[in-house]
Specification:
mainly alpha; 12% strand; elongated
Length: 331
Amino acid sequence: MNMGSGWRKIWLLLLLLPLAVVWLMVTGKQSIDAVDVEIRPGSGSSRIASVLQTAGVIDSKLAFKLLTMVTGKSGSLKGGLYHFEGELSLRDVVKKIERGEVIRFQVTVPEGLRTHDVLELVAEKTKSSLKEWRLALEELLPDQEWEGKLLPETYSYSRPVNPAALLEQMITAQRALIASLTTDQMEAERLRIIASIIEKETGVDAERPLVSAVIRNRIERGMPLQMDPTVIYGIWRRDSSFSGDIRKNDLTADTPWNSYTRRGLPPTPICNPGVASFRAAAAPADVSYLYFVADGTGGHAFASTHEEHQANVKQWMQIERRQNRQRNAGK
């Protein structure tokens, strides 16, 4: 009986030993040098195990596959770019990938860019294909005008970047902002257009409600807006380019966006406006201004009458001549 009892103990040890080894492999921590590992979306546990072992994150592909199989995690491992560093167990590694704790990146979209320029910017910043971004926006906004539908902000994303997901963030953020200002769809589009003009006319927050008031007052009086950014946008839509200098004959060259040749608002926004311009579009200042011109300080001088405006224009021309003389003297 003693011999039988001894053999049973030996067999028990032989059975438990592999389990103990696996347990140590799963829970035992190892020191990992800082390393970034990209796991392709849709990769199976075998492929992931190979990538991790090659990067030095895990020692055993078999242990990784066994752990994910036993715990039922094989189908919930998420792709992306991961950072591993420090004392980590195999279980820690699996949890990190299951939770999708990927490296997050940020991209900032400035106010006032045309949608074409936004797509170029995010494609460049995320090191991805411009064509992918165009196709994604086509799917998100089928048979719709693209201009003015994206909210300029700083957005977070992971690699490999998902253009549709990032663009949807921009579209959803703008829709949420507009919903806080109006529930009327026609008014929503009107706000987009007005906000886009405000965005291109001034970068001074305190002036935005004043520019908004000028737009409101001119439309109410049946006056053409006569705002240069609309002319520039019309040229760009017509020619796919703009020289950078607006000439007198540009003001009389008719396009659907030229607010010198046409009354009322342009048919579409002329850029993607930011939050401040949207708020100003929804709440113009209670003033009678009909005109404004640059004042030489980066802002504008506003006027309610043509006579006041002419005086402001004259002052601006004097400032401009003085600045030109100073520039020429410095050459």
